[in-house]
Design a protein that fits this description.
The protein is mostly helical. 52% of the residues lie in helices and 4% in strands. A two-stranded antiparallel sheet has the order 1-2. Helix 2 runs antiparallel to helix 3, helix 2 packs parallel to helix 4 and helix 2 packs antiparallel against helix 6. It is flat.
Length: 190
């Protein structure tokens, strides 16, 4: 199932979000979006303790805002374009690392850690293999096996054993001057 394929109409309304969430790196995108908030906000925010205002503004506030916006965009990209999830994950990790010197220790380390976790999850995420559609045959949890589809265990065992045995040479030729030249100059050690 690709990102462009809509959920089947048979899916109930309650399960549409679940199906959408399972077909993309949802949690990676969420962590990356959450990482963008402290990284972008903290350089512009200030804390008031009574009459005292603690300004956390830095001279690199524009850089922190750019990093925050890029992380937010990468999080949305992970959700809506899961094809580029590896690029988005690596970019989120790099931006998280860059945010340490630029944005108050990476948004007081919270944004930095969320960016690393979200980027790593995105780079590691892989889509589930497609599920084969089967008939509506009812069974008790065991796969239905007809006489035609039943397999012969002896022929399967022979196939497995034959696949595990390497192919043997037909004849042994000792290495001489003529065989070395004939084999393109390669000589075997045994």
């Amino acid at each position: 199932m690709s990102a462009e394929t809509p959920a089947s109409p048979e899916v109930r309304k309650e399960n549409r979000f679940k199906v959408w969430r399972q077909t993309r790196p949802f949690w990676a995108g969420l962590f990356t979006i959450l990482a963008s908030l402290p990284i972008a906000y903290l350089p512009y925010g200030d804390v008031r303790l009574g009459n005292i205002t603690l300004a956390m503004a830095t001279t690199a506030g524009a850089g922190a805002l750019i990093i925050g916006v890029l992380l937010f965009t990468l999080g949305l990209t992970m959700w809506f374009q899961p094809v580029v999830r590896v690029f988005a994950g690596i970019a989120a990790i790099v931006l998280g690392l860059v945010s340490i010197p630029v944005s108050n220790f990476g948004g007081l380390v919270i944004g930095f850690l969320f960016a690393l976790v979200g980027g790593g999850m995105s780079a590691a995420w892989a889509p589930a293999p497609p599920v084969e559609k089967t008939g509506h045959a009812e069974h008790d949890g065991e796969p239905a096996v007809s006489e035609e589809t039943a397999y012969d265990s002896d022929s399967e065992a022979e196939t497995v054993l034959a696949a595990g045995v390497p192919e043997q040479r037909e004849a042994y030729e000792p290495a001489t001057d003529t065989t070395i030249d004939a084999n393109g100059g390669r000589n075997s050690a045994g």
